[in-house]
């Protein structure tokens, strides 16, 4: 058998990421590859850094995309900020908090876990208590937008508590960036990482990061070398911020960066705050439809992420079977539950370009009609009408 060109099916992506990629971004990806030290490319990279500052709401000089997925953004923060023996308070209320703990351990740090509840925000009082009991801790790590559950934690409050205890913050904003309020400077977040394929709606494989001066001071004061050569910010900075003397570090993923540039231009055109509003509005429309179907969101309303909706699977319904039907009949991808929530929820992403009316109505109509044939009474028309009524209100 001859292996031929790969032509993927055209899907609608409403899972936990990647989100739908806008045609403008895909078109940017296909532009001619040039050298990564070409002056034209260097100029574009400077624009990417500026656009990322706009998205992160920061003036931080060290703001750039790491040439690898969100997980590498996470690792960049931990390997640079954690030195062997450092006590790090890590909040775990889902999958990604657990990964932060792994990162602390592998960097030789000592994790002190604030164990939260899956599907709930991180509890600020619990964090304050833990920091008070561990006065040697100098870092607090938490996930702002837990994609594994759909819970949103109060990054501003947690950063304030950290500062009172003389701790720096490492914040996972992979799903937050571009989708819900994130104010790196105003909230005093010290090291923040994200990903390209969630609410930025770019292709996967890049991890925007930003570090303030407090974080850089800690890195400069390290007694030991960063154990990862590739992610050592002292070396990466020479490549990304070396002004005139930009030196070779690694070959940047040139075309992926064209795509990120385009997605950030689109975000700037829309306006960062307008994008947050759009995500919030579309979440309400989806919620109205789901409620009409009698389906429940598992996260309490005040802690819900608009861009990731965890829906309880009704009794007697096969979670995976519904997703399989949606994929094969409608080319529609929803996410499954992870960890404690495996088999119990569907995760419906409304991220970036996926957060649009056509997707919401498709999702509700397809879910309702399939659930109906699976023995769960569901009125597709009523669900669509309920969502439609919310969409018709001004955002
Ligand atoms: C997706 C995600 C990551 C990991 O990003 P990858 O690009 O998959 O490596 C980390 N944290 C959160 C909260 C995420 O949603």
From TrEMBL:
Q: Which Enzyme Commission number(s) are listed? A: 2.6.1.51
Q: Which PROSITE patterns match?
A: AA_TRANSFER_CLASS_5
Transmembrane stretches in the record are none
Spell out the InterPro entries in the cross-references.
Answer: Aminotrans_V_dom (IPR000192), Aminotrans_V_PyrdxlP_BS (IPR020578), PyrdxlP-dep_Trfase (IPR015424), PyrdxlP-dep_Trfase_major (IPR015421), PyrdxlP-dep_Trfase_small (IPR015422), SP_NH2Trfase/AEP_transaminase (IPR024169)
An MF annotation (GO) of this entry? alanine-glyoxylate transaminase activity
Task: Provide the cofactor list for this protein.
Answer: pyridoxal 5'-phosphate
Residues bearing N6-(pyridoxal phosphate)lysine are 198
Keywords assigned by UniProt, alphabetized: Aminotransferase, Pyridoxal phosphate, Transferase
Pfam families xrefs: Aminotran_5
The record lists substrate as bound by 347
Which EC class, in a word? transferase
Its BP terms in the Gene Ontology are: glycine biosynthetic process, by transamination of glyoxylate
Residue limits of the Aminotransferase class V domain? 44-337
Which family does the record assign? Belongs to the class-V pyridoxal-phosphate-dependent aminotransferase family.
Name of this protein: Serine--pyruvate transaminase
């Amino acid at each position: 058998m001859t292996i031929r060109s790969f032509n993927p099916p055209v899907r609608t992506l409403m899972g936990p990421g990647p989100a739908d990629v806008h045609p403008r971004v895909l078109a940017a990806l296909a532009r001619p590859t040039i050298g990564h030290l070409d002056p034209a490319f260097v100029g574009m990279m400077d624009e990417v850094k500026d656009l990322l500052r706009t998205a992160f709401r920061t003036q931080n000089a060290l703001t750039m995309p790491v040439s690898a997925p969100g997980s590498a953004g996470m690792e960049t923060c931990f390997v640079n900020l954690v030195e062997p023996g450092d006590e790090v308070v890590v909040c775990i209320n889902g999958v990604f908090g657990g990964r932060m703990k792994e990162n602390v351990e592998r960097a030789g740090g000592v994790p002190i876990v604030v164990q939260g509840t899956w599907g709930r925000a991180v509890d600020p009082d619990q964090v304050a208590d833990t920091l008070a009991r561990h006065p040697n801790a100098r870092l607090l790590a938490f996930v702002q937008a837990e994609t594994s559950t759909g819970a949103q934690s109060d990054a501003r409050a947690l950063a304030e508590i950290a500062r009172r205890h003389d701790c720096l913050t490492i914040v996972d904003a992979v799903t937050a960036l571009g989708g819900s309020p994130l104010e790196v400077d105003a909230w005093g977040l010290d090291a923040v990482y994200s990903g390209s394929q969630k609410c930025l709606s770019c292709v996967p494989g890049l991890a925007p990061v930003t570090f303030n001066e407090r974080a850089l001071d800690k890195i400069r004061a390290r007694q030991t070398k960063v154990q990862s050569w590739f992610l050592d910010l002292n070396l990466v900075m020479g490549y990304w911020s070396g002004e005139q003397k930009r030196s070779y570090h690694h070959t940047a993923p040139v075309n992926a960066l064209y795509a990120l540039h385009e997605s950030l231009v689109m975000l700037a055109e829309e306006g960062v705050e307008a994008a947050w509003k759009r995500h919030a509005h579309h979440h309400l429309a989806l919620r109205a439809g789901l409620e009409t179907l009698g389906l429940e969101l598992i996260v309490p309303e005040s802690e819900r992420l608009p861009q990731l909706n965890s829906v309880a699977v009704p009794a007697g319904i096969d979670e995976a079977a519904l997703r399989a039907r949606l994929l094969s009949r409608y080319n529609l991808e929803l996410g499954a539950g992870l960890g404690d929530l495996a088999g119990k929820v569907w995760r419906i992403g409304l991220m970036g370009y996926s957060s649009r009316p056509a997707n919401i109505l498709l999702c509700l109509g397809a879910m309702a009609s399939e659930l109906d044939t699976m023995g769960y009474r569901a009125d597709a028309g009523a669900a669509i009408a309920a969502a439609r009524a919310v969409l018709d209100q001004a955002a």
